[in-house]
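Researcher: Please predict.
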Amino acid sequence: MSAERGGQRPPDRPGLVTAERAAAREKRPILERLGLALIALVLGGLFGGMAVASFLGGELFLAVMGAIGCAMTLWVGGLTLVRG
């Protein structure tokens, strides 16, 4: 016998976004979004600097990992501004 037929609501899964959860979600204030994007910009610059220094020092693997970290951090910072 399923939980739905018994009149009980099935338990929520943590990763499941239902229409109720999406409607209840509020956007962050613009000041908070700008602050988070600024933090992401600083950290992205640090990752980028590490990538350049590693590349100049001959550490290719570390340079690639730093560049990936820079790109991902800047991407998430941009999404913070756009999506809120």
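Model: The mean pLDDT is 85.
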